[in-house]
Design a protein that fits this description.
Residues 30-283 form the Pyruvate carboxyltransferase domain. This protein is an alpha/beta fold. It contains 17 helices and twelve strands. It has an eight-stranded parallel beta barrel with strand order 1-2-3-4-5-6-7-8, surrounded by seven helices. A two-stranded parallel sheet has the order 9-10. The radius of gyration is 26 Å and the shape is elongated. The structure holds acetyl coenzyme *A, 2-oxoglutaric acid and zinc ion (ZN). Residues 39, 98, 118, 120, 160, 162, 188, 190, 192, 219, 221 line the site of 2-oxoglutaric acid (AKG).
């Protein structure tokens, strides 16, 4: 039997054969535009006071995101002040603010001290009719005036079409071509309603890549669950910048979440992602946002969810204990997380129980471990048992077999969010 320890796609696997054009692909060379302080502020529960915005900005900057996008200073007087305050912090990340394609907004924004403006206007027929009421000629004229003005101030400028995937392709390419000629730093594609599929994203970005020479930013809403996959497809097709927010918070059910996007890109190129971002900070950053907007981190959250590194079924547990790569594409330790093998349930198997027996310092033959596993399964058929109950059962069984009470071994435990106890890291790593 050949045992591979590699975490990349297995040689000969479908994943290994699928090589998107390296010429176009930016999966190994992208930037994150972190929009928790813009799109995230559009989340139903969000309210960040100045101090909280600064705390969030500093945390994301330390994590390593390349850009922070802030709410338009035209939104309110406090939004304008906050923009100015964050622009003054001297962070490594570039500070952007997000404005309508309107001179009034641009004039206010350029005075805040930000590094650049992300300008947007709707181009789908729905938004043209029911949002701003302007046609493509008007939009092009307005965009030209706004972009020229921002550039005259020496600031970075991105021009984006809202609702790109329900816009006419000819309209889109014409306006992108026009603004590229004006010298924008980036054009943006926005899946404002979350309707796009990865294939549609790939095709649109690839087409656009052939039309403009500037960078391409992409923004994906998650209404139909494609936000992360769409971000990856966009990079494969040559997009350079991806918008994220912590926990994905944003308008409706939000956009590509920072953690999930990072997980996806880590699985594509672990070294690249680890060289850019302080992955151990992710959990604290998510907790910071979850507290601020009064939500729980979902149990199945990417990387940091309660069960993201919990292995349960016996078949999985055996293989994981032999080699974690069997059922993990992400190394928990790279994110400051801990692997857990759960055994107090009816799906457990003797290999996982044997591992626990060894951790407890008990000596049982394989046949004896199989017998005690059958007992655990019978009990767990009534209800699952926590690790304390399983340990007690194992010790009692051991005492019965050996005719003595051997309960002096101590395995460190930590308390979990659900009140259960889990073994400490070293006890479950199985390596
Ligand atoms: C898809 C997105 O998430 S885009 C970003 C959304 N962000 C925001 O909306 C920021 C917060 N917004 C606000 O504080 C306010 O909406 C403001 C200050 C921007 C505008 O407020 P108001 O002037 O009261 O207008 P209101 O919000 O009712 O309507 C939007 C106005 O912007 C115009 N508009 C909408 N989109 C754009 C655009 N991309 N570019 C230029 N004008 C636009 C509309 O025509 C409408 O103008 P009207 O007053 O002449 O009808
Ligand atoms: O500016 C952009 O590109 C995106 C704006 C936005 O939030 C959206 O269209 O959903
Ligand atoms: Zn959005």
């Amino acid at each position: 039997m050949t045992v591979s320890t590699s975490r990349g796609p297995a040689p000969g696997s479908i994943a290994a054969q699928y090589q998107p054009s390296e010429f176009l692909s930016r999966v190994r060379n992208f930037s994150i535009i972190e929009s928790t302080l813009r799109e995230g502020e559009q989340f139903a529960n969000a309210f960040f006071d100045t101090a909280k915005k600064i705390e969030i900005a500093k945390a994301l900057d330390e994590f390593g995101v390349e850009y922070l996008e802030l709410t338009s200073p035209a939104a309110s007087e406090q939004s304008r002040i906050d923009c100015t305050e964050i622009a003054k912090l001297g962070l490594k990340a570039k500070i952007l603010t997000h404005t309508r394609c309107h001179m009034d907004d641009a004039r206010i924004a350029v005075e805040t001290g930000v590094d650049g403006l992300d300008v947007v206007i709707g181009t789908s027929s729905l938004l043209r009719e029911f949002s701003h009421g302007k046609d493509m000629d008007y939009i092009t004229k307005q965009a030209t005036e706004v972009i020229t003005f921002i550039k005259s101030k020496g600031l970075e400028v991105r021009f984006s079409t809202e609702d790109s995937f329900r816009s006419d392709l000819v309209d889109l390419l014409s306006i992108y071509k026009a603004v590229d000629k004006l010298g924008v730093n980036r054009v943006g594609i926005a899946d404002t309603v979350g309707c796009a599929t990865p294939t549609q994203v790939y095709e649109l970005v690839r087409t656009l890549r052939g039309v403009v020479s500037c960078d391409i930013e992409c923004h994906f809403h998650n209404d139909t669950g494609c936000a992360i996959a769409n971000a990856h497809a966009a990079l494969e097709a040559g997009a350079t910048h991806i918008d994220t927010s912590v926990l994905g918070i944003g308008e409706r059910n939000g956009i590509s979440p920072l953690g999930g996007f990072v997980a996806r890109m880590y699985a594509t190129d672990r070294e690249y992602v680890m060289s850019k971002y302080k992955l151990h900070m992710l959990r604290d950053i998510e907790n910071l946002i979850a507290d601020a907007v009064e939500v729980q981190v979902p149990f199945n959250n990417y990387i940091t969810g309660y069960c993201a590194f919990t292995h349960k079924a016996g078949i999985h547990a055996k293989a994981i204990l032999n080699n974690p790569s069997t059922y993990e594409i992400l190394k928990p330790e790279d994110f400051g997380m801990t692997r857990y093998v759960s055994i107090g349930h009816r799906l457990t198997g003797w290999n996982a129980v044997k591992n626990r027996v060894q951790q407890l310092g008990l000596t049982l033959t394989d046949d004896q471990v199989k017998q005690v596993t059958a007992k655990i399964k019978a009990l767990a058929d009534i209800r699952p048992r926590n690790i304390d109950a399983v340990d007690q059962l194992l010790r009692e069984f051991h005492a019965e077999v050996h005719g003595s009470n051997n309960d002096d071994s101590q395995v460190p435990k930590k308390r979990m969010a659900n009140g259960d106890t889990k073994e400490a890291d070293a006890a479950v790593n199985g390596q």
